């Protein structure tokens, strides 16, 4: 557990949120490119790909700092449903439809790391997770001493029950210490079979951003930020494990009535 606090930002609407998310993501990109000439990012499903597309496909001011260099991006999935890549439930398909297919050619094409459909077809969700972990190992563990992958940025959503990735409240997966990627076969939210990054991988990232909008998130965000009882929720565990590395991008309806201090700009 770290003692520093997450950053909570709140904006009037999703448009304004997306305008602020852009420089945040690009700062993460630019720092990563300066460090190791590649930007390793993990993304979630839900409403995130739409907001991310709004942020990243907006016109650049022309400066190198404000330009997504997609050819240097390696995009992984924070969680993925065990379905074919062309299934309507696939997070890959969602990201493809909302963002990847709309990237102008001059910005370059990112390297995408989708799940291996072979283990979707044979129904072996543990093998699906293991193969995805091997993909991460190839990308991150150049040295054998690497215990956990360190993403430059992980972009997350927060469900109305406080879940994030496919880490659900009270689930034994929250205690996983060793695996980088875990299989979930009885998700309380359909579809039941999924794979997910584990909590230690999420909290090891250099930057972690949640995007949570709408009045439907008000109760759960209050529990996460203000209430002792909410502290064991998966999204709260990310706050506790990563502290100031975490930034929450919310809109005003999502944080109405929350006492935790929030800011209107980065
Ligand atoms: O796999 C899933 O079931 C979804 O991807 C889910 O985890 C989503 O990210 C959150 O429920 C937040 O959803 P919203 O961003 O739509 O609020």
From TrEMBL:
Pfam family, one: Glucosamine_iso
A single GO BP: pentose-phosphate shunt
Keywords on record: Hydrolase
Annotated metabolic or biological route of this protein: Carbohydrate degradation; pentose phosphate pathway; D-ribulose 5-phosphate from D-glucose 6-phosphate (oxidative stage): step 2/3
The keyword Secreted is annotated on this UniProt entry: no
Entry superkingdom: Eukaryota
GO molecular function terms attached to this record: 6-phosphogluconolactonase activity
Root EC class: hydrolase
Record InterPro entries: 6-phosphogluconolactonase_DevB, 6PGL, Glc/Gal-6P_isomerase, NagB/RpiA_transferase-like
Residue ranges constituting the Glucosamine/galactosamine-6-phosphate isomerase domain according to the UniProt record: 12-247
Claim: Signal is one of the keywords in the record: no
Enzyme Commission designation: 3.1.1.31
Catalytic activity: 6-phospho-D-glucono-1,5-lactone + H2O = 6-phospho-D-gluconate + H(+)
NCBIfam families associated with the record: pgl (TIGR01198)
Function of the molecule: Hydrolysis of 6-phosphogluconolactone to 6-phosphogluconate.
PANTHER family: 6-PHOSPHOGLUCONOLACTONASE
Membership in a protein family: Belongs to the glucosamine/galactosamine-6-phosphate isomerase family. 6-phosphogluconolactonase subfamily.
Descriptive protein name: 6-phosphogluconolactonase
Originating organism: Penicillium subrubescens
């Amino acid at each position: 557990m770290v003692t520093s606090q997450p950053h909570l930002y709140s904006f009037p609407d999703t448009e304004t949120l997306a305008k602020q998310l852009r420089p945040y993501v690009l700062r993460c990109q630019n720092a990563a490119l300066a460090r190791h000439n590649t930007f390793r990012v993990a993304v979630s499903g839900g409403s995130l790909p739409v907001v991310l597309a709004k942020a990243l496909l907006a016109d650049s001011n022309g400066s190198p700092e404000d330009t997504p260099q997609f050819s240097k991006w390696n995009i992984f999935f924070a969680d993925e449903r065990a379905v074919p890549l062309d299934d309507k439930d696939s997070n890959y398909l969602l990201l493809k439809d909302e963002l990847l297919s709309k990237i102008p050619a001059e910005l370059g094409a990112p390297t995408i790391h989708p799940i291996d459909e072979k283990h979707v077809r044979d129904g072996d969700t543990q093998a699906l997770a293991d193969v995805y972990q091997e993909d991460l190992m190839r990308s991150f563990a150049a040295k054998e001493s690497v215990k956990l992958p360190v993403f430059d940025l992980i972009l997350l959503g927060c469900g109305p029950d406080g879940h994030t990735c496919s880490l659900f409240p009270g689930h034994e997966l929250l205690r996983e210490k060793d695996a980088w990627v875990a299989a979930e076969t009885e998700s309380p939210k359909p579809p039941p079979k999924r794979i997910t990054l584990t909590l230690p991988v999420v909290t090891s990232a250099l930057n972690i951003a949640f995007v949570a909008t709408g009045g439907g998130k008000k109760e759960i965000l209050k529990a996460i930020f203000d209430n002792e009882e909410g502290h064991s929720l998966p999204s709260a565990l990310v706050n506790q494990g990563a502290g100031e590395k975490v930034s929450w991008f919310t809109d005003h309806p999502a944080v109405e009535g929350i006492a935790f201090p929030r800011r209107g700009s980065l």
